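In the previous lecture we treated proteins in isolation. Real proteins rarely work alone, and many bind small molecules. This record shows how such a complex is specified: first the sequence, then the SMILES for zinc ion.
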Amino acid sequence: MKPLKVKCPKCNYEWETKSKLTYLTCVSCQRKFLRPQEYEEDMSAEEYELKLKQIIYKLTHDKELDSKEEKIVGGIVKRI
Ligand SMILES: [Zn+2]
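The predicted 3D structure, ligand included, written as tokens:
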């Protein structure tokens, strides 16, 4: 499994993780990972949580994201 490079939206700390958890915790400021703006606009918390699980699954299994998922993760999670 490839590590993910993630960036904390609170403190902008970047690190690599192999965690499969839905929510990652920033290793710098300890805040829970992370709430993109799209979540506020058109997704419920439940929908967002489910989608985030799918996204993390796809990223950790080297699968392509669809356009909605790309929008959610834009700038915050990327393959390395
Ligand atoms: Zn942080």
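Summary for your notes: The chain is about 35% helix and 15% strand. The first helix runs from residue 37 to 42.
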